[in-house]
Design a protein that fits this description.
This protein has ten helices and 14 strands. By secondary structure, it is α/β, with parallel strands linked by helices. The chain folds into two domains: 210 residues, Rossmann fold (3-Layer(aba) Sandwich), CATH 3.40.50; 63 residues, Alpha-Beta Plaits, CATH 3.30.70. Strand 7, helix 6 and strand 8 form a beta-alpha-beta unit. The radius of gyration is 25 Å and the shape is elongated. The model has no long low-confidence stretch (mean pLDDT 90). Bound molecules: adenosine-5'-diphosphate and magnesium ion. The site of adenosine-5'-diphosphate has 13 residues, from strand 2 and helix 1.
Length: 303
């Protein structure tokens, strides 16, 4: 297990930012940590990286407890904080050399050159950080997070504030960098998770509300809402053999139901045939990923 959180609670004064949070992230997974603003994403990431302690609970990174091995863990984790704090007066190359020295990297020049190459910073390497676009500042942030070749990457909203082109470039870069690493990436955008991650953990008001593979979450999302109108009145028993849930009678001949069965339309036609009636109207509405996210995180905390 790369990251293990068990019953983690964090209370700031009177505010419970994390409420008994538990999850596991396996080696080499790219996990989206999804939730609306104020959900507790940054708080959880600061705890994993050892910047703040939890009020209670256990966190392990690569099998090491964060309290007992905080220095060793900092060596194994690369962290891009939400505000991406960089030294704006420093030059890109100078900054990366400074960080490399902090980590005690032996061949500083060689490693900085590699990071400049991997993060696509060649043309900007001689500029001052303050002169860079937001997208290039994020690249520098990623380079500093990766310079000591950590096995775990914690990226807090790495694409927020980027324009659509920069966004795409940074997503591709994260995917590429994440190939042989464990990546936990926070975002409040559902599409981002779909584009980059293979697993998603959804947090809302400090509680985990879903944790699954994108594939499984999508399967929930393939559930379809159906409204059907027959030419005659039917009763509930006519539907009792169908793979449906939440059956609701809207009028004697109109029914609402949900199903994730691919052949549900055919089954409904069979009912019409058997009962010697016709289907006057059938509408289907798919639950999209975005709706699932909304349904799970409906009541937002006011910021
Ligand atoms: P997210 O990153 O998901 O937007 P945060 O982890 O930053 O959420 O915040 C979770 C909750 O904890 C929010 O309600 C926020 O206002 C509160 N919070 C965060 N940091 C502090 C702090 N240092 N002191 C008091 N409350 C805080
Ligand atoms: Mg945050």
């Amino acid at each position: 297990m790369s990251i293990l959180a068990k019953n983690v609670t964090k209370i700031y004064g009177k505010q419970k930012a994390l409420d008994n949070v538990s999850f596991e992230i396996k080696k080499s997974e790219i996990v989206g940590f999804l939730g609306p603003n104020g959900a507790g994403k940054s708080t959880m990431m600061k705890i994993i990286t050892g910047y703040i302690p939890p009020t209670s609970g256990i966190v392990e990174v690569n099998g090491l407890n964060i309290f007992e091995h905080s220095l060793e863990i900092k060596r194994q984790i690369g962290y891009l904080p939400e505000q991406n704090p960089l030294y704006y007066e420093m030059y890109v190359k100078e900054f990366l050399e400074f960080i490399a020295k902090l980590y005690g990297i032996k061949n500083v020049h060689q490693r900085v050159k590699e990071m400049i190459d991997i993060c696509g910073l060649e043309i900007e390497q001689h500029k001052k950080i303050k002169a860079l676009s937001k997208g290039y500042k994020q690249r520098v942030g990623l380079a500093q997070a990766l310079i000591h070749n950590p096995s775990v990457l914690i990226l807090d909203e790495p694409t927020s504030g980027l324009d659509p082109n920069q966004l795409e470039e940074i997503r591709q870069l994260i995917k590429h960098l994440g190939k042989d690493k464990t990546v936990m990436l926070s975002t409040h955008i559902m599409q981002e998770v779909e584009a980059v991650c293979n697993k998603v953990i959804i947090i809302h008001r400090g509680k985990i509300v879903a944790s699954d593979s994108i594939q499984n979450i999508k399967q929930i999302s393939s559930s379809t809402k159906i409204i059907i109108e027959f030419s005659i009145a039917l009763s509930e028993k006519h539907f009792s053999h169908l793979p449906i849930k939440n059956l609701e009678q809207l009028s004697p001949s109109r029914w609402k139901m949900e199903s994730d069965h691919p052949d549900i339309s055919k089954e409904l036609m069979q009912i019409a045939l058997k009962n010697n009636c016709t289907i006057l109207n059938l509408s289907k509405e798919e639950l999209k990923l975005e709706e699932i996210f909304k349904a799970l995180t409906q009541s937002q905390i006011p910021n």
